[in-house]
Structures are given as C-alpha cells and as structure tokens.
Design goal:
By secondary structure, the chain is an alpha/beta fold. 39% of the residues lie in helices and 16% in strands. A six-stranded parallel beta sheet has the order 5-4-1-6-7-8, with helices on both faces. The protein has a two-stranded antiparallel sheet with strand order 2-3.
C-alpha cells in the first residue's frame, strides 16, 4: 500500500514507541482561523479525515488527547464525538497537562507524541518522544520537531500523524483493509 508520507528510520522508531498522541487544537486540528458571531459564539472547522484518523488510532490501542490554550465548547463536543477522553483546555502552560496525562496513564516521555504548530508547543516538543509540527507551523516551532507533516493544520495534518504512528506500529494496513 502506498504511504502518503516519508519518514526517516529515526522517526519511525520514535513512532513505534508511542502510546499517547497529543494534539493541539487551533492550527493543528483546525486551520487556526477563529470565527465569532455577534453573540460571542465561537465556530471552528475540523477536517473529517483527521477525525477518522483519530478514531482509527484509538482503535489501534494508542490513546489520544488534546491540549489547548483556549477553551471551547465546540472542541469538547468534537472530542466527545471522536471518543477522545482527555481534553485539556485553557492550559497556557501545556506542560502541566502533559505531566497529568503522563502520570495518569503511567507513560514515559518517549511513549508520548505531541503535534503542534506554534511556540506554546515547543516545551512539549522538547519532552515528547515524537514531536511533530504541521507544514505551516511557525518556523521556530518547526525547528524543534522530529517530523513535519506535508499537510497543513486543519487540512489533514493530524491524519498524517495517525497514519505514521499506525504504520510504524504495523497496524495501518489492518485498519485500512476494512475499507478496501
């Protein structure tokens, strides 16, 4: 099966060890654009392929979480619809949420992937076993990542990460087979 990504042996080895994938929301699961109506309600657009990737990754045995500096009911509902149990919102210090997740799940840093796009993600990039930046990430954040997606945030970047991890762990072909 043709892979939609290229990755070095180092990145594949890191991905093979992952038991928890953490995604930032704005700029990773969305394109980062924020819409507000006159009543102050917030709107975001999520890519459906990212959603399926997250579901397949969870089904493969990898836990999924989101850590965001912002709070949004839309994000809570989207994560609930995808079965994501760990939804940390309003965390300016993302390392605090990272530490809580690691402790609750009993994982080491090398078993955690973090996907981000901007400077608040850099502290997690430095701790995570696999640090992934989106194709349109801020250049200083991208420099800290082990791997860059080919797609931008909100346009399939998260799906690439899910596929990469499942490929490295030997579960991707089985997950895809049921659709082919």
């Amino acid at each position: 099966m043709k892979r939609p990504f290229e990755a070095s042996q180092d990145v594949l080895a890191r991905a093979a060890a992952i038991r928890l994938a953490i995604f930032d929301v704005d700029g990773v699961l969305t394109d980062g654009t924020l819409f507000f109506d006159l009543q102050g309600s917030e709107y975001k657009a999520f890519h459906t392929r990212d959603g399926l990737g997250i579901k397949l990754l969870r089904e493969s045995g990898v836990e999924v979480a989101v850590i965001s500096g912002r709070k949004s009911e839309i994000v809570r509902r989207r994560m609930e619809s995808l079965g994501v149990r760990y939804c940390f919102q309003g965390f300016d210090d993302k390392l605090e949420a990272f530490g809580r997740l690691r402790a609750e799940l009993g994982l080491s840093d090398t078993q955690v992937a973090h996907v981000g796009d901007d400077l608040p993600d850099v502290p997690l990039f430095r701790r995570a076993g696999l640090a992934v930046a989106t194709a349109d990430a801020h250049p200083l954040a991208a420099e800290q990542a082990h791997w860059l997606t080919a797609r931008t945030g909100g346009a399939g970047a998260a799906r690439e990460v899910c596929d990469l991890i499942m490929h490295a762990q030997g579960t991707l072909d089985g997950a895809m087979a049921r659709f082919l």
